[in-house]
Amino acid sequence: MVIRFKKGKNQWKHKPDTLTCVREDGSITWTHLHRGFVHHDFAHYVIETTLGFENAFFGLVAKGYDIRDFSESEAQRPFEIPREAMDTEPIVALLQADLPNTPNAQYANSNELFREHSATLPVSITDEQLEVMRQKLQALLQKWHDLQPGESMVLQFHI
Asked: Is the pLDDT of residue 13 over 90?
């Protein structure tokens, strides 16, 4: 699946960032992203590709789920969110907490943050996997930062 993140031309004039996914069969799903939400989706991408998750956000989108359905209430959503997708969210939160200028700046690095919370995580993550995820996320964030409004970056996702 091809994932395209497009930097909005002006967040405040209704030209926000967008996320578009083109599946292997050519079908497309897309959505506008709320300000700053691209970081959350980058964290998902990094976690899912590093840990080999196939039933979390991008894996489900690749299988045909519509992006917009994920924000529907449980009663309105046309599917039940799989356990793996639910298990990914606390990992996303911890990885995002490692970003610069976050409230968890008291931690010298995310290894400390992950160690402190690892017992509550639904999956085990090695220090090596954590380092790979941190590096991938920082690289994506740098590429995003370097984009001009209206420009896009493309990622590949395989299940």
From this structure: no
Reply yes or no on whether the pLDDT at 24 is more than 50.
Answer: yes
Residue 10 CB partners (closer than 8 Å, separation 6+)? 149
Q: Minimal CA–CA distance to 136: which of 49, 17, 52, 57? A: 49
Q: Where are the domains of the chain?
A: 35-148
Residue 71 DSSP code: G
Length of the chain, in residues: 159
Are the CB atoms for 113 and 95 separated by under 8 Å? no
pLDDT value of residue 58: 98
User: DSSP letter string over 114-127?
Assistant: HHHHGGGSSS---H
State the CB neighbour count (10 A cutoff) for residue 142. Answer: 9
The secondary structure of residue 23, as a DSSP letter, is -
User: Phi then psi for 109, rounded to 5 degrees?
Assistant: -160, 170
CA distances from 73 to 46, 84, 92, 138, 159 (A): 26, 19, 21, 32, 27
